[in-house]
Amino acid sequence: LNVTPERMDGWIAAFRRMRDDGIDVDAVKDHSFKSDDSLGYVTDMWREGDTLYGTHEVQGKDQIDLVRRVKNVSPWVELDHHGGPTGTSYGEAIIHSSLCLQPVQSGQTEFVELPEGAVSGRAASRVPVYSLSTAQSTEAHDMDPKLLAKIQAALGLDTLNESGIGDAIDHYAKAMSTDLDKTSKALTVAQGEIVTLTAKAASRKSDDKKADPPAMDGEMLDMLVEAAEGRLESLVLSGRIVPAVSKKLHAVLIGEVGKRNVYALSRTVSRTERSVIRQVLDALADNDPKILHEQTSAQARVFSREQGEGEVDKTAAAKEGELLANASWGPAAA
Fold first, then answer.
1. At a CB cut-off of 8 Å and minimum separation 6, what does 158 contact?
2. How many structural domains are present in the chain?
3. Which of 263, 258, 233 is nearest to 245 (CA)?
4. pLDDT tens, 135-169?
5. Cα of 41 vs its chain's centroid, Å
């Protein structure tokens, strides 16, 4: 997960919207969703530099003793969270903060205890939830003004303050939902085309007297899957599809481990000039981009290939397309 200050600010905005709507962000242990493993609640969240902080209201002597023994926490990030009685979409959000051992982010400091009855305060409580580095900032501040200005420009607003950013993004999300509906319809059409092509391929195979295509090597199948997933990620990062559509495309065109859609990945199996998945992804690449804020170089990279500072690997997407274009393999070996 590529965690940036901008991404943390998005989690904070989602947290505040959820809190305003009466949706709790739980404090738990071992990423459990059982009530017996509840420690309390996260009552506030903010960012200082490259570190995300949260105030954890822990209830009960045993739970407090546990927090005193175990200092590490790990957030559970849901990429497309829906909550409340009407299933409101909050986008990418932290839905709980878990006490755990060996978290992904190491080097965390101890919890800082607040006096009983004290209100959540940024100056008094610095409890790291997730950090880009082990260094702790000592200066408390609100959202970066430069980031706020970028969001304001992206949303086409004359003015925007931190307190109103949630409503502004919600309005933008509703507009994006229209594009999601259009893309979903396009996906339905694509699924129909896949069914048609599958029927044609089955008919050809029954009349084909030649030997079956060679079995696909597992490593080559993994390369095709990696390239296809890279194309999907590029389409999301460039704003041409939303994460929800990416998930649907992955399920239909790539499939889960052990049940890969070799037909869609290999042009030899589908007997088409270009693989089925490449045809679909090339078509989706023509969508108008919808980008909320400026992307960093790291976010724009499809593969984690290091470049000079400020540069983006402009050949990564082309290489993925080339790999998919040259994918000429048979069904996966049993």
1. none
2. 2
3. 233
4. 444 344 456 677 777 777 777 777 766 566 667 77
5. 24
